[in-house]
Amino acid sequence: MAASRLFADEAPASVNAWMNSQGYRTTLGNPWRTEALINTLSHPQLAGLDKDGKPVEGAEAIFSVEERSKLLALFAGYKKPVTEERSDPHDYLLNDEAASCDRCSHAMIANRVKAGGPPQYRCPAPGPNGTSCGGVSITAERLEGPVTEQVLAELLRPKAQERIAALLHDIQEELARLQTFVKGAEAEKVRLRELRREKVLSVVAHEAAQKALQKQVKDAQTRMAFLDQMVVSVPSGGVDDLIAWWEAAPITSRRALVRLETETIRVLPGRRGRGSDPYDRIDIVWRQPSKTARAAKSRVAKGAGSKAA
Prior knowledge:
Layout: H1 2-7, H2 12-21, H3 34-41, H4 65-76, E1 99-101, E2 109-111, E3 120-122, E4 137-139, H5 140-155, H6 160-197, H7 203-228, H8 239-248, H9 251-261, E5 262-267, E6 282-286, H10 291-308
Helix pairs in contact: 6-7, 6-10
């Protein structure tokens, strides 16, 4: 997936940010950085080759030899190492795929098209996988401003705090389930080994079960990292309090609120005759709490009301 993003002309710093946001880490458990990304993707083993570039019999290849050559050519094209310190200094509100292209549904990437240009969001150019159209872009100012206004406006609606509490309830419930699963995975590994020793499982079946379990654990950890980005404490005051909180809150808290409130933020193509109003180019689908969460919060509110009475 990282290689496909690079093939689609996505900057290494942006690929690193996506990998880290999805919960992926290096073999040492560290966040991905450009040097580690390039070194890892350049390793011949990923193409089923040895250190001399010769095919290894029976090796599992992730890339074809041609794809590895394309990656090496891509890396060689960098005039000098791209570091995180040289990355875009703008704090993008809708990073990590928070916004998507309305035309092709591909995630928008956040960067500057050229040095000195305005920060913007754009659908990446079509790559080998053909999932992006590359035809939609919008400056960060025209996207982030209207999204901020609409997110804050939603918090001022009647019963907004109850809705936020219910959404957070859903997140905490799912996090608890995933954490229980990840903790129980170790016991499941032990059970699989016992079944293998007792010859209940064949070697092939045991390996397949182990791989399936590892994938489930990895998917759970990735999902947990995503959900952690939505946990935020929002003030319950009026307009002035809310705006003051937003302006003082760190970018991570503002991103968390946007993630929590919105299911999707789709950016429509610009058209002649549409006018200069950026609101006409933004379609937000608001996240809705589950019925279970709404019922739980309703019971809590009624109980508090009874005690007060």
